[in-house]
Specification:
By secondary structure, the chain is α+β, with helices and mostly antiparallel strands. The protein has eleven helices and 13 strands. It has helices spanning 25-39, 71-88, 90-95, 106-113, 146-162, 186-194, 209-223, 314-335, 353-364, 377-380, 387-394, and strands at residues 55-63, 67-70, 117-120, 171-175, 199-203, 228-235, 255-263, 273-282, 288-289, 311-312, 343-348, 404-411, 415-423. The strands form three sheets. A nine-stranded mixed sheet has the order 5-4-6-7-1-8-13-12-11, sandwiched between helices. It has a two-stranded antiparallel ribbon with strand order 2-3. It is globular, with a radius of gyration of 23 Å.
């Protein structure tokens, strides 16, 4: 549908969205204090009875990289590397000072994860046993960065579905696990590339970045800080994956998702989902960790070591995160006044098929049907923060008005984010 502009002119009719309201705390506090003095109590910190502005997801977008790597291709490359390593270190392996590398297999990968393939920004470098990492040339400072390029493509898709134009957006939020640089913020670069007037910033809550980003967007719209928010999740996870580690070389893929969040009363999209509840939770754990950072150069002995890439204690993560996620989903639904039996769909974080099957079983008390907890990780693999949004983007158009669903992400931190939505 053609974009419908959101005018900034306050003289426009009430059917259009007014300009963002910038409320200073100093103008609110005296009112609270004065009211408190009248009733003889301390200043009021929270108003449970206030009716909050209704907010919707009005559009989603997806950028899928041009290259796909099958499990078969990945196994051929890994095994070639492992066989050469074992041959080169035969004497040390025989002496017991070096551990031989175990070969990988398609059956092992699919049983462990449910993944069959993954998309990447470049595949030839990954499939070169002598390299095993993408080969992508650096870009100049005056060129659009790779991550911003992905984000712009996904953003245009989301804007089209929402019936909006860049001029309608006041805030850009890039929320993902892996930023390609420290600064300037990726969000500000995307804002500039799209011609958006307003502000942008980045945030990282690992695999839960998208759901945490949605909550930030909801708060911005409800407070009047932004008329509409563009949330972006550009994940180039191939850059932090150790393709030479048998236990994880198959896990990740690249992708970017985009989400438009705006007020329900001015949204024009036919793809609206009202956000009726959000909950966020974090708990520190080292079970999923990546130590890469600019402080690495302080100690040259650690540069290039395996801990500077993704690593996890898989069994520990499975045991601890699955019940946490299931309980969080049930608690979020209860707080939103929704019973489990009323939920039509669960768009879960797409990290591991066995995790999703267990989480759904813990929620439902039975195995979920395919349409209740759709899977995209078989072709996309784990795309970190983008995974649950890819599932939401791909499996939403068949839902009837009034149908309820849950977007849930979970991962490093630990972090878990839940968003309850209802089809408008």
């Amino acid at each position: 549908m053609p974009p419908v502009a959101l005018p900034r002119d306050k003289n426009q009719s009430s059917a259009t969205l007014p300009p963002p309201r910038r409320t200073k705390l100093s103008t609110v506090e005296p009112v609270c204090v004065k009211f408190a003095s009248l009733i003889g109590s301390a200043p009021i910190a929270k108003f449970e009875s206030l009716t909050m502005k209704q907010v919707v997801i009005s559009g989603t977008g997806l950028y899928t990289p041009p290259f796909s790597i099958s499990n078969e291709e990945l196994v051929i490359c890994f095994n070639a590397y492992a066989e050469k390593f074992n041959a080169d270190n035969a004497d040390a392996i025989a002496a017991g000072t070096v551990t031989a590398l175990e070969l990988s297999s398609v059956a092992f990968i699919e049983k462990a994860s449910g993944i069959k393939s993954r998309f990447v920004m470049e595949k030839e470098g990954i499939l070169d046993p002598a390299r095993m990492v993408s080969r992508i040339a650096e870009r100049g400072d005056d060129e659009l960065s790779l991550q911003a390029e992905m984000a712009v493509a996904a953003a245009k898709d989301a804007l089209a579905r929402a019936g909006r134009a860049p001029a309608d957006i006041d805030m850009v939020l890039v929320a993902c696990s892996n930023m390609q640089r420290a600064y300037p913020a990726m969000a500000v670069e995307v804002q500039d590339a799209l011609g958006i007037d307003g502000y942008g910033f980045d945030m990282n809550v690992a695999c839960s970045s998208a759901t945490f980003g949605i909550q930030q967007a909801v708060a911005a719209v409800q407070s009047g800080q932004a008329r509409a928010v563009l949330v972006l999740n550009p994940e180039i996870t191939s850059g932090h994956l150790n393709w030479r580690d048998r236990d994880s070389h198959f896990i990740f893929g690249d992708a970017c998702t985009a989400i438009i969040v705006e007020a329900k009363d001015t949204a024009v999209s036919p793809h609206q989902f009202e956000i009726i509840g959000t909950e966020l939770k974090t708990r520190f754990s080292n079970a999923i960790r990546n130590n890469f950072g600019f402080l690495n150069r302080f100690d040259e002995s650690g540069v290039g070591k395996a801990d500077k890439l993704f690593r996890q204690q898989g069994r520990k993560v499975f045991k601890e995160v699955c019940p946490m996620a299931a309980e969080m989903i049930k608690a979020t639904l209860a707080k939103a006044g929704v019973e489990v039996a009323q939920v039509s769909r669960y768009w879960l974080h797409q990290a591991n098929l066995n995790m999703n099957l267990l989480i759904a079983r813990l929620i439902l008390g039975r195995d979920a049907q395919a349409n209740e907890a759709p899977v995209i990780l078989d072709t996309y693999a784990n795309t970190s923060s983008a995974g649950s949004i890819i599932a939401f983007h791909t499996y939403q158009d068949d839902m009837a008005a009034g149908a309820t669903g849950v977007i849930c992400s979970f991962g490093a931190g630990y972090s878990i984010g839940c968003v309850v939505v209802r089809k408008v």
